[in-house]
User: Fold this.
Amino acid sequence: MLNIGMGELMVVAILGLVVVGPERLPEVMRFLGRNYAKLKHATSDLRKAFQFEVDKAQGEHRAELIKARRELLKAKAEADALKESISASVQRPNPNLEPPNLQSSDEAVTAPTAPPGAETDDKS
Assistant:
């Protein structure tokens, strides 16, 4: 976690012995150890609280996604049912409709002609 090698640890121990002195060194080490443990405990609690909030937010988001998916599937089912209903009604002939008036094949369709004496755009 701290990446302290054996050489650095020896330098810190010798500095602590010189600065604090041999009489107070055990007391200072106990103080540092207790405070380090308290700090680790506090960071662990903070990490757990943060993870709890993240999990809670993800759970709420997941619930919203599930609800949206259910609504989407319901809308799709309704659309499919409507599609089937429309295609069934289109394929089934309506008995109330009259059949289209079809011309016989021997009648030719002619283009409308202009009445006699009407002007044409053709100037020859």
Observations:
- Residues 11-91 form one domain.
